[in-house]
């Protein structure tokens, strides 16, 4: 009689109780019985094989996902972006509100003014026209370098008409050390031409008109309007203002234009002109681009810039000592 096959019956053998053979094997019959067993086992195995052969199951049949599930599922190799819960957004929004709180902004302005209240435009000039030309030349150049070339430039070509009529090579030669002198020479010559032709030789006093002058974008126009005419049409955003406004959390924009728009919302208009000069001086003296001197900074208690070089303790939105 063939042994009951636990595999076939699907019953696992009990632990610690090996299954007893129903009939003792005779020693003389061992080879035959062994052979028979082998044959029986073989036949059982073969039977299983035959059974599976004759009635094939389909173990590898792929499961069909519902279409909606497939559409919603992640693409192979890509992790879905983690969802940011409303609760997680709350601290960031609260931090943003605190950074722009009127009392904090007022304290920043007060401290900057106390320290740099006498800050003035560092470009030497004696008229709006000279300031316009000097500001055009200051692009990608230090004010000190511009101040080295402008005395001779203004001595040889003192008016917009004279600048418009100047040979381009002569202008290039005079301003060469300020860099980008091909483009800058074209700009100041073009500025002379437009101001002579369209504005009677006088520098215009509106943002709209100034933006028609070659070489004058918003930053240049804001400098001329603020410094030469005392008009606050916008905030000057140069490299220092751009950097420090973002460090102080007053703006997050990725371009000077966006930062200016943000500053115009958060800084009271009467501070627009002075704020720029004060921040520029602070950027040159303390809040330098690489490794700012935070230990010496009068705004340190109010600042939570990620690249601070020194931290006195917990931030105090009111900046109290
Ligand atoms: S604390 Fe540091 S990063 Fe902040 S404004 Fe001052 S110098 Fe700049």
Explain this structure:
α5 (102-116) packs across α15 (272-285), α13 packs across α14 and α13 crosses α15 (272-285). Among the domains are: 102-120 and 236-302, Endonuclease Iii, domain 2; 128-229, Endonuclease III, domain 1 (Orthogonal Bundle), CATH 1.10.340. The chain has helices at 6-9, 30-54, 67-72, 86-99, 102-116, 128-137, 143-156, 160-165, 168-175, 181-198, 207-210, 218-229, 239-247, 256-266, 272-285. The chain is mainly alpha-helical. The longest helix is centred in the first third of the chain and has 25 residues, at 30-54. It has 15 helices and no strands. Residues 244, 247-248, 286-287, 292-294, 297, 299-300, 303, 305, 308 line the site of iron/sulfur cluster (SF4). The site of iron/sulfur cluster (SF4) has 14 residues, from α13.
């Amino acid at each position: 009689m063939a042994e009951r096959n636990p595999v076939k019956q699907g019953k696992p053998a009990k632990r610690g109780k090996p299954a007893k053979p129903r009939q003792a094997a005779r020693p003389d019959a061992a080879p035959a019985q062994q052979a028979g067993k082998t044959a029986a086992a073989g036949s059982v195995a073969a039977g299983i094989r035959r059974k599976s052969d004759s009635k094939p199951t389909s173990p590898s049949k792929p499961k069909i996902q519902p279409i909606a599930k497939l559409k919603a599922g992640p693409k192979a190799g890509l992790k879905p972006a983690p969802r940011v819960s409303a609760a997680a957004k709350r601290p960031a929004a609260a931090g943003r509100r605190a950074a722009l709180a009127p009392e904090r902004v007022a304290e920043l302005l007060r401290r900057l003014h106390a320290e740099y209240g006498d800050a003035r435009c560092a470009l030497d000039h004696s008229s709006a026209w000279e300031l316009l030309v000097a500001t055009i030349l200051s692009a990608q150049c230090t004010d000190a370098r511009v101040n080295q070339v402008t005395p001779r430039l203004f001595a040889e070509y003192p008016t917009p008409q004279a600048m418009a009529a100047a040979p381009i090579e002569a202008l290039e030669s005079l301003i060469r050390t300020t860099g980008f002198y091909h483009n800058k020479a074209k700009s100041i010559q073009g500025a002379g031409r437009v101001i002579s032709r369209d504005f009677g030789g006088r520098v215009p006093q509106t943002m709209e008109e100034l933006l028609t002058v070659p070489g004058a974008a918003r930053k240049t126009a804001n400098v001329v309007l603020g410094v030469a005419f005392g008009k606050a049409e916008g905030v000057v955003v140069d490299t220092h203002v751009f950097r420090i406004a973002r460090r102080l959390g007053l703006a997050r924009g990725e371009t000077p234009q966006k930062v200016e728009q943000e500053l115009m919302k958060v800084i009271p208009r009467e501070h627009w002109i002075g704020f720029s000069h004060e921040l520029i001086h602070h950027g040159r003296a303390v809040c330098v681009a690489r490794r700012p001197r935070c230990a010496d900074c009068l705004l340190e208690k109010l600042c939570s810039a990620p690249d601070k070089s020194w931290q006195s303790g917990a931030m105090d939105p009111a900046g109290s000592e």
